[in-house]
Structure formats: structure tokens, C-alpha cells
Amino acid sequence: MSTSTDHGRPDPEATSSGLGSDDRPVSDRGDTVCVIGAGASGLTAIKNLREHGFGVDCYERETGVGGAWNWRHDRSPVYASTHLISSKPFTQFPDFPMPDSWPDYPHHSQLLSYFERYADHFDLRSHIWFGTEVIRVEPAEGERWDVTTRSTGGYGPERTSRYAAVVIANGHNWSPKLPRYEGLEQFRGEIMHASSYKDPAQLRGKRVLVVGAGNTGCDIAVEAAQQASRCWHSTRRGYWYAPKYVLGRPADQVNDSLLALRVPLRLRQWLYHWTLRLTVGDLTRFGLPKPDHRVYETHPIANSQLVYYVGHGGIGPVPDVARFHPYAVELADGREIDPEVVVFATGYLPRFEFLDASVFGDSAGAGRPGLWLNAFTPGHPTLAVAGLVQPDSGLFTLSHWQTVLFARLLQARRDRPERAAAFGQRVRERAGERYSGPVKESSRHWFEVGHADYLRAVERALVELEGK
Amino acid sequence: MRGREWSRPVRPARREVLSAVPQLEEGRPPLLFVPGFGHGAWAFAEHWLGHAASRGFPAYAVSLRGHGGSEPAPEATLRAYAHDVVQVAAGLPRQAVLVGHGAGALVVAHALARYPARGAVLVAPVFGGWGVLGAALRRNPAGTLPAVFGGPLRLSRGQLFSRELPDEEARRYVGRLGRAGRRAQWALLGEPEAEPAVGAPPVLVLGSPDDRVVPASTLTRVARRYGSAPLLFPGMGHDVMLDARWAEPIDAILDWLEKEPAGH
Questions:
Q1: Residue A188 lies in a domain
Q2: CB neighbours of residue A150 within 10 Å
Q3: What does the pLDDT read at residue A14?
Q4: A94 and A206, same structural domain?
Q5: Do residue B3 and residue A100 have CB atoms under 8 angstroms apart?
Q6: For chain B, percent helix, then strand, then coil, each to nearest 5?
Q7: Per-residue pLDDT tens for A103-161?
Q8: DSSP code of B78?
Q9: Residue B251: which of B139, B121, B152, B131 has the closest Cα?
Q10: Domain that holds residue A198
Q11: CA B257 from centre of chain
Q12: Which of A42, A212, A69 minimizes the C-alpha distance to A127?
């Protein structure tokens, strides 16, 4: 396999220098591709680009791989007891399976060791600049990119390198989305976002209000039920709480048996509702609100324990928060509760502060780039985003195929430019396409994808690109 | 989309892995040897593992489920065997070279679609098809016919070894042979071709023109599929790793790896 660089590190001796847009010196990295972030999506980008013969420089602001899944990183959202909510076959990279000896739903520490092994197995670390953060990515002549970096601590000089292409894999679960409430500033209790929740000891013996019914919110509510003196769980609407096991098998595997048979959505919804009626039963009996939507219309919540703890009185389901008072929280139904700790499990917003929002077709700067396949941006054939999807399964398989597609696109630009141009045309025409069926509109769901629909779309794009 | 991989993952099974690693780590890629049907990791532990390690290559051999010291698995399929190989390969510290012998070569071909190997070596590959069955029936009808109906496949001494191998040794090896799952055996008749290998690894095909299981024409056909010509070792039987001149093929494999970019 030929590579344009044997070692990933930009070597000032080996690269020619030019000048950037504002007369900064720029070291030219030739055909090398820049990958931003060494989390799950970044790692698979390095591996797949290398496998397709490209040199890679990856910049990682932390000192280790794993991104969100490395609990030592200050941007990691994982907490002590985080477990996967999609089972192994849905989570692993398709060409690097997790060990048979692992459980169906591994712990976050196992996931980190998985990424470390992946990096070592494919010798990816020598292509990663740790402790280096990307502060600017700007288009340069010839559809290339100037990437400016500096050390994470902010010391040392900035340096700019010119790359043939860029893969953005900076993750989307690190910038907390905090809701605004009347009176929140006056509240005297402790307020935290789920991103700073690390250990159940933070809740022990306290009166806790958990806001948000994402998977994290439900997990924290379950922990609070076991640790706190009291737990309220505030949700805006009713949700479907799917058990992690159905018929003795991981529920996602059972669901995918139906997907593999291409059972229509309506029939799957009916079967799902029927299964939930048999296993979980009528949620309103527990005091939980009735879901106002059908299953598959919001991001699925896989939690076998929430309903159990509601049934044991450990979790008190409450409606949306109306406003905060100094020592109390007023709920939408007029009730007042007096939590000592409020945990906002209200999600995260994707952020790309190193890139001018207009490059992404997001001139409003709302953090919602207009992309095709959630990865390719119109007018910029050498830029791709990896992992900006919120799938109803694991993410890493999707990142893998996104980066394979990007690597093949870069190959096509060199070997079959007409194919690459046709691909660019499709990106322009189909940016913003959705792959999720009818989902509820919210900032959390705009990049929601159904994994089967999405992977079929990527597969079609691969076939069209290769012209088979 | 690989719906089946997700909705019906292969059931885990306990696997035997034998190994010989060099005393000094020289940065060479690990080799994973995959024995053919009926054989276990022992077939490589006899000579090849130690020899590869002595030349600086960490060497491992897996017993497919139902074989050697691995867990019994009478209903194993070809997919389960490929799963075993990918699991062991992904568990090695670095990207591995897969070396499959006999039907193990077919298992390796399937594993290559699921694991980006550094390289692959197909030794006396049994890729199935009616031609191979015809040849086996002509040479050893009593041992082959029961397999068609789900019984054990029994290979004879004459098929496996040259006359140079001492009789006592040959008998000992034949006595150690087990059998593959019947569903995997049937797969040799009608299994669809393996998906293309991921990561475009270099592939070497080698065997013997005097192999009485795999005809030379099959060697040429398999090698052509991977864009090369087979490397031939006349005068050897099907089990080149156990036959009298076992050192020649393994040395050729290691020489090839040292020359290939994969070896570094």
C-alpha cells in the first residue's frame, strides 16, 4: 500500500512552505488528509483513509484516544455507571468486532479499552497529534484547506498546515444545551448539567430533580432512585420506555430481525406497541404521561429499570418545569417541589467553532449544517463530517461507512474525476435529506437517523460512486 | 446492510488458540493460522508455529469451533467459523496476516470480508464446488460419500501426505483428525462466493501439484481470483504443514511476507 507520508506528523523539514490568506506561513502537507478528533469517528476515519492509501494527520485536544468515551477527558459526558444502550453488534466497528466474552451491553470502560485496542491494532497513534487543538479551518486554493492548530493549553505558537481534505470528527456530545427557565438564577439549590454528573455519590441522600427523558435522563433518574432520598423525574411528554431485553435477546436485535425482513413501519409499530403492552404494560397506571406519539417517532429510550423504580416509588414522575423559585420548583400543573439538586439531562448541541458557519451552509449559525448523508457539504467536495448522526442504534458503524465513502470519494477525485463530479452534484441536490421517517421536530432530532435507512442510503451512494 | 450480522449475531464459543512468539519483538505482523476441516490448531503447532516464531513472526493458530480443543459445535456454519477467525484476529495486538489451509482457506476468504488483514495466505485452498467433490469421490469414495449425506468426511493417509512421511507419524496425524459441522461441510457444495476482501490485502496462494485433495487447476483458479499465480511445491501431500518437507512452504510464506510491504 502506498502512502504519501510514512509518518503522520507534519515535519517542517519535509514540507514546502507557502503563505496563507493573511500572509501567515503555511506548511504544505501535499495529499495528506486532516482528521479533527481522535474519538470513535476520528479513529475510524484515520484507519479507513490509511487503508485507502492516504496520509493522515489527526489533531486531538486531549492526551488520549476515545473522545466522549474517555472519562478522563474534560469533555466526556460518561459517568461511572454508563453502559451502552445498543447491543454489541450494533455498536462495534463492522470490521473489528468486540470480544465474544463481553456482555451484550458493555460498560463505558470496556468501550474505552476497545478504542485503545483499535488504535494499537491498526497502528493509528503515530498519526495523531495529542494535546493539539484545531482553532481554524479555512478553505484554500484548489479545494484544499488551511488548518491552524495550537497546543490545548494555549501556549506555544499557532501553526497552519495545508491539507488536501479535512474530516471533522469533533463529536456532538460535549457542549451542554441548558434550557432557560424563569427564576433559574435565583434558585438556591445545586444545578448541574448531566455532563458534569460523574458518580452516584453526587446524589446520595439528597432530594433530586432530574429534567429530561433522554437515555441519560432516565439512567440518572434510576440511579437517583437508588441513592437519593427522593427523586422526581420531569418530562415534557410521555415516552415509550423499551426494555433492553425482549424474548431473552437484546431488544435491538429482535427489532432488526423485523427490519431485515423489511416489515413495513406501521406493522412494526403495531408489533412494538403490542410487545410493550405485554412487557411494560399501561404506563399511565404508574402515573407516567401517555405518549403523544407512536414508537420510532422519537429517539428510542432503552431502559428496563425506569418503570420498575416508578412502581417502587423511587421515582416520582412529574410534568415539565414552569419556573424556579429560590427554594422550590414550580411545575406545569401548579405543584411545587423542593429539590436540593437539579440535574438537567437536556442534551448537547453540535458545535464547530473553528469553522465559518457559512462553509456548512449554516449562515444563521444555528449549529445545523445543511449536509447530504449528514456528512457531505455542498460546494466543498474535500470536506466531510464524521459521526454527526443521532442513530437509533450505535454510531460507530455509521461513522465507519461514512469515512469509507469519503476515502473512496477522494480516490475517485484522483482516478475518476467524472464520478466525483457526479457525486458533488448529488451532494448539492440532496443536502438536508432525512433518513428517519416521521420524527418529532426538536434540536435533538434534526440529525436523528434510522440506522437501516441511513446505511442503505450510504450503500447506494457507494455503489453510485463506484459505478457498479 | 448486513441485517443478519446485527439481528442474529453468531453465538459465542470457547476457542483454543495456540501460539509461539519470538523472544524479541521485531515489529513483524502476527500470523494467524487457520486449519482446515477436521484439523485443529495442533496441526500448526507441530512445526510451523515454532518455525515462524524463530524467524521473528509472532505465530498463533486457532481451532475452529468443534475442532481441536475448542468447544464442540456440531451445528456450526461457515459463518460461525469465519466469526471465530475474525474474533481471534481482532484480539491480536496488531493487524494480522491470516493463513488458511484447506477449507480453512475458504474460512479465511470469508473472514477477509469482515476483517482488514495485513495480508493473507491460502494454502492448498479447498473452495468447494462440484469439481472438488467429484475428485474426492474418485480418490476416496468411502471417506467422502458419507459427508454428502451429513456424515463425517474421512481423508485418507494417501490424500494428506507424501510417501516420504514415516508411516507411524502419518497414522498418528490421521488419528487426530476430527470432523467439521455438517452444515459447514454442505456449504462447500453450494456456498455463495465470499464478499471481496476489505482493505485490499496482498494474497499469496500456494499448494502442491501432487495434492490429492486440491487439483492443480483449482490452485490456479483461486490464485487468479486474487490476481496472482500459485506457488507450487511438488511432491507434497495436502497437509503441507505436517508433511516431511514442511519447512519449504513456511519459509516461502515468511520470505514473501518479508518482501511484501505487509511484512513491515
A1: yes
A2: 17
A3: 45
A4: no
A5: no
A6: 40, 10, 50
A7: 999 999 999 999 999 999 999 999 999 999 999 999 999 999 999 999 998 888 899 99
A8: H
A9: B121
A10: 184-344
A11: 17
A12: A42
The answer to whether the Cβ–Cβ distance between B116 and A51 falls below 8 Å is: yes
Q: Is A231 part of any domain? A: yes
Q: Cβ contact (<8 Å) for B86 and A97?
A: yes
Distance, in Å, from the CA atom of B229 to the CA atom of B209, rounded to the nearest integer, reads 13
3-state secondary structure of A18: strand
Number of domains present in the structure of chain A: 2
Task: Based on the fold, state whether residues A376 and A401 are members of the same structural domain.
Answer: yes
- Look up cell 410487545; give the residue: A275
Length of chain B as a residue count: 264
A17 plus A149 within the same structural domain: yes
Contact assignment for B116 to A89 by CB distance below 8 Å = no
Total H helices, total E strands in chain A: 10, 25
Q: Match 449544517 to its residue by C-alpha cell.
A: A369
In this structure, the answer to whether residues A147 and A212 fall within a common structural domain is no
| Separation of alpha carbons A273 and A221, rounded Å | 24
d(CA A40, CA A58): 13
Is residue A1 included in any domain, yes or no?
Answer: no
**pTM assigned to the model:** 0.91
For the record, the C-alpha cell of B99 comes out as: 493463513
What span, in angstroms and rounded, lies between the C-alpha atoms of B112 and B117? 6
- How many other CB atoms are there within 10 angstroms of residue A298's CB atom? 22
Q: Are A127 and A46 a contacting pair, CB within 8 Å?
A: yes
Asked whether residue A335 falls in the same domain as residue A362, the answer is no
Regarding whether A370 and A339 lie in a shared domain, the answer is no
How many Å is the Cα radius of gyration of chain B? Answer: 17
CA-nearest residue of chain B to A398?
B1
Locate the chain A residue with the closest alpha carbon to B30: A121
Residue A312: give its domain's CATH number.
Answer: 3.50.50.60
Nearest CA in chain B to A397: B1
A128 vs A154: CA distance, rounded Å: 18
Query: Are residues A233 and A323 located together in one domain of the fold?
Result: yes
Each residue's pLDDT tens digit, B208-232: 999 888 888 889 999 999 988 999 9
Domain check: are A297 and A436 in the same one?
A: no
How crowded is residue A432: how many other Cβ atoms within 10 Å of its Cβ? 13
Burial class (CB in 10 A: 0-12, 13-18, 19+), B245: middle
Select from A344, A375, A406 the last residue of a domain.
A344
Whole-number Å distance between alpha carbons of B98 and B108? 7
**CA B82 to CA B65: how far, in whole Å?**
10
Tell me if A179 is assigned to some domain: no
Residue B158, chain A, CB below 8 Å: the answer is: no
CA distance linking residue A234 with residue B122, whole number of Å:
60
